[in-house]
Amino acid sequence: MIEEEHLVQTSSQKNNAKASATDQFSTSGFILAAIGSAVGLGNMWKFPYITGQYGGAAFFLLFFCCLLFVGLPILLAEMAIGRSGRGNAVSSFYALSQNKIWGKLGFLTVLTPFLILSFYAIVAGWTLHYATISLTGGLFNVPDYTEAFVGFASGYMPLFWQVVTMALTCFVVVKGISGGIEKFNKVLIPGLGIILIVLMIRSLTLPGAAQGVDFFLNPDFSKLGAESALVALGHAFFSLSLGMGAMLTYGAYVRPEQSLGKATLAIGAGDLLYAFIAGLIIFPTAFSYGIEPSQGAGLVFMALPAAFAAMPFGNLFGFLFFILLAIAALTSMVSLLEVPVAYAMNRWNVDRKKATILVTIAVFLLGVPSALAMGPLADFTIFGKNFFDFMDFITANIMLPLGGLIVTLFTGYAWKRVGEETGISGFWYNVWMFLLRYVAPIMVVLIFAHSLGLIQF
């Protein structure tokens, strides 16, 4: 339990916070880092699938509306809390409210990314492994891609790749904001954009690609309904990294003169564009090679390798595809790790290097059962789920919606000076407050209930 005295910074902690505040994002650096946090693995295999399942372009339009009216208002709120509080996800809530209850609730947004990172690093390791064997050609020398993936995931090699991904993430975060996270994203996010375009062009020029594009972009409004609305809402919420303290923590490193409103729109546009191009990669490729585009992780690690094996220069395009996934994973991992690191620096008054190394070790140890959940620890279950699936379930279905609800209620009701921080006033301020006070909380509760199976359609 977090005690009140730990929510209030000591004088030495204040000095530490002020020192860290000098290490800030540049304007472009913050937007790229935030886009890097939002762009993750889920958009590459989940978004195309649910788009095709719920009406193609009709669902894409619905997703855009959810992003605009729920996702972006919460995103702006998180960044405003971080920049005004100039601390971690716990101290910022307390500093702006002077109420220890809000500080304790804010701890959920520190714990959530810590838990997510423990198993997210495993999937990131899978992508690096597949990128490596794609480049060497080893991926295409197996007769059964499903058997190959199961054999890899059920062994001990995921532990090695978990070490690699955590070490890379630790290295970046140790370097700080401007010297580490910003530089990292300034290189990888443009690189990700280039790879996206190359893969999109390759996919669109495959035989039969037009059928995949038609499946993705042809609107079918008959498939829209209450369930599709909640699915679109949930994806808009999660694709922006909301409820996990990442955008709040990044907000603490934003310069006072930077427009949070413009940054919010830029981040939303980047996330939307990435999801759209992902669809133009997955669907044409899947339809060109007769692949069912509804297999989730199986699509990426079991089905698409067969497509790359069949196409000219498949090892190159397979390598680019998995490197694309690895970049998306690593940029998200950096933002996830920064949240508990910022908390540790402030809470225990330690320097960035020590805090990062200690948190990284703790995350790695917690992630070991997830790395072995499909193999040596497959028989170890919690509520009928292996450790990997259990961690995924409680974070995605319980902790993230609760974190988002905390942000909306705090900004809408508890924090009275939010307009001054964002510079929003008049009509647009009233619209934003209406969305935060009434629309977003109801929508988040519906996401929560639907994800837990409490609402069925």
Can you give a write-up of this model?
The protein is mainly α and 457 residues long. It has one domain: Amino acid/polyamine transporter I (Up-down Bundle), CATH 1.20.1740.10. The protein is 77% helix and 1% strand. It contains 21 helices and 2 strands. The protein has helices at residues 4-7, 11-21, 27-38, 42-53, 57-85, 89-97, 100-106, 108-136, 145-153, 157-174, 177-204, 209-217, 226-239, 246-251, 260-288, 297-310, 314-348, 352-371, 387-414, 418-422, 426-451; strands spanning 381-382, 385-386. Strands 1-2 form a two-stranded antiparallel ribbon. A hairpin with a 2-residue loop joins strand 1 (381-382) and strand 2 (385-386). It is globular and about 60 Å long. The model is unreliable at 1-21 (pLDDT under 50).
What are the salient characteristics of this protein?
457 residues; mainly alpha; two-stranded antiparallel sheet; 1% strand; disordered N terminus
Reconstruct the topology from this structure.
Elements: H1 4-7, H2 11-21, H3 27-38, H4 42-53, H5 57-85, H6 89-97, H7 100-106, H8 108-136, H9 145-153, H10 157-174, H11 177-204, H12 209-217, H13 226-239, H14 246-251, H15 260-288, H16 297-310, H17 314-348, H18 352-371, E1 381-382, E2 385-386, H19 387-414, H20 418-422, H21 426-451
Antiparallel strand pairs: 1-2
Helix pairs in contact: 2-17, 3-11, 3-15, 3-17, 4-13, 4-15, 5-6, 5-13, 5-15, 5-19, 5-21, 6-7, 8-10, 8-17, 8-18, 8-19, 9-16, 10-11, 10-17, 10-18, 11-15, 11-17, 12-15, 13-21, 16-17, 17-18, 18-19, 19-21
